[in-house]
Design a protein that fits this description.
The protein is of the alpha/beta class. 56% of the residues lie in helices and 10% in strands. The chain has 20 helices and 14 strands. Strands 7-14-13-8-12-9-11-10 form an 8-stranded mixed sheet, sandwiched between helices. A 4-stranded antiparallel sheet has the order 2-3-1-6. A hairpin with a 5-residue loop joins strand 10 (607-608) and strand 11 (614-617). Helix 14 crosses helix 15 (552-568). It starts with 38 loop residues before the first helix and ends with a strand. This is Wzz/FepE/Etk N-terminal domain-containing protein.
Amino acid sequence: MQSSLLSLPQQHAPEVMQYAPEPPPAASYPSSTVELGDLKRILVRRRFLILATAALLTLAALLYGLFTPALYSSAAEIIVDPQDLQVVTNDVNPSRVPPDGGITMVESQVAVVQSSGVLLRAIAATNLTDDPEFNGQGGLLNRLLGGVLGSGSAETDKTGKTLDALRRRLAVKRADKVLVLDVIVTAKSADKAAKLANAIAQAYLADQASARAKMATDASDSITARLDEQRKRVQRAENAVEAYKSANNMVMAAGNLVSDQELTEINTQLAAAQSRTATLKAQVDQLRRSGGAADATSEAMRSAVISSLRAQEATLVDQVSQLGTELGPRHPSMMAAQQQLRDTRALIARELGRIGAAAETDYERALANQQALEAKVAGMKSKSLDTDQASVKLRELQRDLEAVRSVYATYLQRAQETREQVNVDSTNARIISDAMPALKKSWPPLLLLVFGAFFGGLGLGTGMALIAEYSSPTVLSSAQMQSAIDAPVVGVLPAKSARRRWWPFGGAAAPAGQKMDAVAGLALRRLFSSSRRPPNWPLVPSILVTSAPEDSAQRGRVARLLANAAAARGSRVLFIDTNNAGGSQKEPQPGLLDVLRGEYAFEALSQYTPGSNVALLGKGRPKAAFSEAQGVYFTQHMLAQASRNFELVVVDGGALADNLNASPLVAMVDEIVLVATLNATPMRDITAASQAISVMGRLPTGALLVDEAA
């Protein structure tokens, strides 16, 4: 039955009450930046993008690993001692160990192994230019590109391609603090990889020996080229010495001037003559002092004749003495013996006189010899002074000759040494481990690729998810929501409850539903604890629940949870659904729109749910429009009448940006609650909903978030 309100003309409607609930004072909320804890929500929401990216990359890696030809790697080890073998003393390549122990020198050998000279040796030794795997002719595409882009001769082009391909397959490494080089070659065949690694190692040793031999050859050639010049210099120096000696009449014997040798010999003779003269003069002086008696001289004492005569004299003296005793002085025998004694003494006297005369003669002869030698020495000394002046220049020429000879001898010896070093390899490097064919393939590492692709895909997907979130941000946390609407978040509800019936109203709450009821009840307390309703305000307390269009299901669920939570605590609740026409009939039943048009009293339309304290009021029939002022009046009237039978009105206001019929309710309700889903509702929808509420003259007073991860 229609209410008497239908007879009330709209132009004579009573004036609307001037009070409209105001939001609480503005509070300071945290900024809306994304926090680290919100990353979990982003990743959970966009998990399908992350997992799909990881799956695609894993599949691509798996296909690559299955269809890519296997490659095998083999390594040969070379030890390089920075101190070369000491074959000869004067080596062309001196061995000096640097302060760092030779690490820098060995490190430079890594580049030498990869040089073109070494690799070309290995290519020639293994005929690698005929191998399609390395010469760039292994496939049709390579042959076509080679025909189109190739330049130069075919042989040169093939060698260049082989060299480039070998460089790409070669790796030379040196472990830290060791002098060992690892030559690693990768090929499609394990035997080929080992063969190439060994060939490169051998080519390196041969290249080092060849380089050192070339250095020795170049040094020998350079020194030999200088030998002729040094020989000519020696000849010029010798000719200069001989010409000078000839010009100055300087005859040499045994390396010395003949005049110097003669002067030395005469000086020696003079010294001997002077000594002999002095000795003879002493003898003569002694004879002269003894009065001519030479019997006391040393010459008389040494004379054999004198000694013999003295012996005869002694014998005759004994004989005379004996005969005198036996025969008497007149005896003929006595007289004969005395005569013999006198004759013997006469002989002694004559011999002593001869010795004295001989001494005088020897002294005079020695003195004359001495004087002759002194005169000769004096003459040679004057001649030697002139020769000494010429010898100064001669000695200078001789010193120059000796220096040139020394340099020439050094060059000659060094040239011979370097010629011998050409055939001697002093390189102290050797292969300590030959490359062996690999038992397992080195590429592609299927398991590693799959795991790398999977985790790389997770990382890439995570990055794409964060980029997508940055380009279209969603509600991530309560702090972000509070900052966006400048109102508190009064609760966070779980998204689902498997054992909770949220429609129709009533029924016993399951354990999970009890948690949601507790959150909803706490949200109601927070909303009305901050409300500034005047005392004895005639309108029933009311809440309007709104959201973005995409959150309509969560909004309806939250509105019913609020109504159920209030009803569960004994409050009588009026639930108004602005989105439901009411009933299951095809023809919409009267409801809220009919009340706002003044066609029905809401008491006649509200219906209690059986077994519940909740009365329902549907959307009604949208057959006729009404003015906003009329809607506000009848909304106020409806809320005033509802205060007689209800303690709370909960309105599912829909998406206010699309539901202009709810604007009268927005103007009169106490609380406007904005519902959003964490990590799902875009921030632009929250901004649009907040702006729609602002256009209708109000601001959101709170927010309820739904957590799908709870």
